[in-house]
Design brief:
The complex is a heterodimer. By secondary structure, chain A is an all-alpha fold. Chain A is 80% helix and 1% strand. In chain A, a hairpin with a 2-residue loop joins strand 1 (57-59) and strand 2. Chain B is an all-alpha fold. In chain B, helix 1 (3-26) packs antiparallel against helix 4 and helix 2 (30-55) runs parallel beside helix 7 (151-171). The termini of chain B are far apart. The chains are: A mainly alpha, B mainly alpha. Chains A and B meet through helix 5, helix 6, helix 8 and helix 9 of A and helix 5, helix 6, helix 7 and helix 8 of B.
């Protein structure tokens, strides 16, 4: 059963993408979109249940363990929410002329092709397939970022495709080098399978693996948006159509982190845990520090959220770098928490931008007066991103902090805390000025549309739930995934 | 074929690859850089054929054939077609002086050899000097991308960079699995097509080079 699901799940978005090409009716396209995402979510829950009950499964080049399940669950929750959000977003985008009715089918086909490549990245056991799927996500999402055809969008798309392609070609180089080390040990049975490499990992030559891991870290780190390779991220995440921004920030950059975790485990077994952890801490701190000034002095709402993603990816890397059971658990939890929260933030920002017809933070004022529910959601998303309890990000940040204190890494803890406090103030200032005050006369006073609210409320429920308690089923996945990472 | 002869041939081809790389870095005209990268891919295809003969690995023949048709013929042709289509008047447009770029390029080559020399055991896993040459090509490809302001030059840098990876991958004992190599090549083709479309699209709407747009800041 679970083995069947391993090839059915990637097939669902592929079939959907092809199905989309057969019609150009907007309502029909949206129906297919939402139902396909719902099917994907249902199948993933089934797979999660099977894996939770009887452990990891593999089928050819695909494999799923508890670590993969966490990322897969995040993906399906976000695609479902994004699909629901898209219904009304698309209607509005067609009305104002941002999207053309004739080319809607290509948009949907690309979105599902994008989802398919993400699914393969998560399920790939073969490190070569992982790379191919990762480059696939770059190509499909680059087209989506420039989809409006506006030259700002195309500029962002070009920067994105060129920087991440060159970045992950470093990742391929690192993969080849580590494969060379493994092939030497494995002899005739050499394969690029991650699980096979893990079995021989302690026997690999540490010198080669070290160089390979640095290449991988720079490569997949570019895709993850870690500083100083993050330069494409604020552009791409701010220029993409809103549903795509939510997917890019919510899940895509986390998949690059999943790839890094896989290699981190090989490197930890070959050269000891300290080496990969130190590198992760350096990149993590760099990202948090670099993001801070750009968050404070930002004028563009979506760019603000982009830089906030750089910060949070840095926090996840920091958690993985601190390591131990608490740090790793916290980092994995932060992957989910940030994914959900950032998706709400982008969705709420997208509707606010449409209402005020501006992305400038100074122009958006008094959102509470014109759109009370949307404004509340935007506010709690910002509060959560800033790390306020009882929202979920507070919990995972606290765990990462505790892991750092447990390790006695005082310098890193001090830098993390200082930056978190400054960013907290900055985010609250921006959120307050958008939500409160007197709305300008030009702001649209139409009543709020239903589908975006349903999508955001779905995610907000999860966000608050995960802040208050972690359900036993999820806790089981996180516990076992932590064990997988720690080996 | 004798193992020493194979290593010698791979080293000779590696030297030719580095020579074409210097030509790309120093090229004053975009079309020359494209011809240089085409020759670079041709040498990599030859390296694949030599390794295929030496190891009797049939997969490597296939990879050599694909490299020849795709990277040495099809992609350079695509770039040359785009140049004609766009009627490029500006040429390479370096960001920093050519001499500085060339100095950096030479430093990367020396650094790559120095780095690989510190890895004794890697010699058994990868034939000849394929690792340092591969690292040098990859880094110099990035250098080309970082120091050029025209989109097509950046694409040439990208292809050169990927050539370095392919060269190292071929020389790894047993080579990479065929299906992976084919998947990687497919990605390269798709990426090149998408990039070319973007370049042409920006050229036709705002009459500027896509790599030269800099409205997004801060």
């Amino acid at each position: 059963m679970a083995e069947t699901l391993l090839w059915v799940i990637p097939l669902v978005p592929v079939v959907t993408a092809l199905l989309m090409l057969t019609t150009s009716n907007r309502k029909l396209l949206s129906t297919i979109d939402v139902s396909s995402s719902a099917i994907l979510a249902a199948l993933t829950l089934l797979l999660a249940h099977e894996v939770g009950a009887s452990g990891p499964r593999s089928l050819g080049m695909f494999r799923v363990d508890d670590l993969g399940i966490i990322f897969l669950l995040l993906l399906v929750v976000l695609t479902l929410a994004v699909s629901i959000y898209t219904v009304a977003w698309l209607k509005q985008a067609v009305e104002v002329g941002n999207m053309k009715v004739e080319s809607l089918r290509f948009y949907f086909a690309l979105v599902h092709a994008f989802v398919a490549t993400i699914v393969v990245t998560i399920l790939a056991d073969n490190l070569g397939i992982l790379w191919i799927a990762m480059e696939g996500t770059t190509i499909t999402s680059a087209v989506l970022i420039g989809y409006h055809g506006h030259h700002h969008g195309l500029e962002a798309a070009w920067k994105y495709i060129i920087v991440t392609t060159i970045g992950i070609s470093f990742g391929l180089f690192g993969t080849v080098i580590i494969y060379a080390a493994a092939a030497q040990v494995m002899g005739d049975a050499s394969s690029m399978s991650w699980i096979a490499m893990m079995q021989v990992a302690p026997k690999l030559d540490p010198g080669i693996v070290r160089i390979g891991f640095i290449f991988v870290m720079v490569g997949y780190g570019t895709k993850a948006g870690l500083a100083p390779m993050h330069l494409w991220l604020p552009d791409a995440h701010s220029q993409a159509p809103t549903p795509i921004s939510a997917l890019l920030s919510g899940i895509l950059i986390k998949c690059a982190l999943l790839a890094i975790i896989r290699f981190q485990m090989i490197a930890a077994a070959a050269c000891g845990v300290d080496f990969p952890q130190q590198i992760l801490i350096v990149f993590g701190l760099a990202s948090i520090i670099v993001a801070m000034p750009f968050i404070l002095a930002q004028h563009d709402l979506k760019r603000l959220l982009g830089y906030s993603s750089v910060e949070h990816v840095g926090i996840i890397a920091l958690g993985l770098g601190f390591g131990g059971a608490v740090g790793t658990y916290g980092a994995l939890l932060h992957v989910v928490n940030h994914g959900i929260t950032k998706a709400i933030a982008f969705m709420a920002a997208g509707t606010a931008i449409a209402r005020f017809d501006s992305r400038n933070l100074q122009a958006i004022k008094g959102l509470l007066a014109v759109a009370p529910i949307g404004a509340t959601l935007l506010m709690i998303a910002f509060l959560s991103l800033a790390g306020v309890p009882p929202f979920s990000i507070f919990v995972s940040e606290l765990m990462i902090l505790r892991a750092g204190i447990g390790q006695g890494n005082w310098v890193s803890v001090a830098i993390f805390l200082t930056m978190a406090v400054i960013i907290f103030a900055g985010l609250l200032h921006h959120a307050g000025s958008m939500v409160f005050g007197e709305p300008p006369k030009t702001a649209s006073r139409e009543s709020e549309t239903r589908s975006p609210l349903i999508a955001m409320l779905l995610l907000a429920t999860l966000m608050i739930l995960l802040g208050l308690t972690i359900p036993t089923m999820f806790d089981g996945f996180f516990q076992r995934a932590t064990e997988v990472v720690l080996g | 074929m004798n193992i020493e002869i194979v290593h010698a041939v791979i080293d000779d081809l590696g030297a030719l690859l580095l020579f074409t790389m210097i030509l790309i870095v120093g090229a004053s005209q975009i079309s020359r850089a494209i011809y240089a990268v085409a020759f670079q891919s041709l040498f990599i295809a030859i390296a694949g054929a030599v390794l295929a003969m030496a190891t009797g690995n049939v997969d490597l023949w296939v990879i050599a054939g694909i490299t020849l048709t795709v990277k040495a013929i099809a992609l350079p042709w695509l770039l040359l077609w785009a140049i004609r289509r766009m009627d490029v008047k500006r040429e390479v447009e370096p960001v920093i002086p050519d001499l500085a770029t060339l100095t950096l390029a030479v430093m990367f080559v020396v650094m790559s050899f120095h780095l690989s020399a510190s890895l004794g055991s890697v010699r058994q896993a990868i034939s000849g000097n394929a690792l340092p040459v591969g690292i040098a090509l990859t880094l110099n490809g990035v250098l080309v991308m970082a120091t050029r302001k025209t989109a097509l030059s950046q694409m040439v840098g990208l292809f050169a960079s990927e050539n370095g990876i392919f060269f190292t991958a071929m020389a790894v004992t047993k080579g990479m699995p065929l299906i992976i190599e084919i998947g990687v090549i497919l990605d390269v083709i798709l990426a090149a097509l998408v990039m070319t479309i973007m370049v042409l699209r920006v050229r036709s709407t705002v009459d500027a080079d896509i790599a030269d747009l800099d409205r997004l800041r801060g």
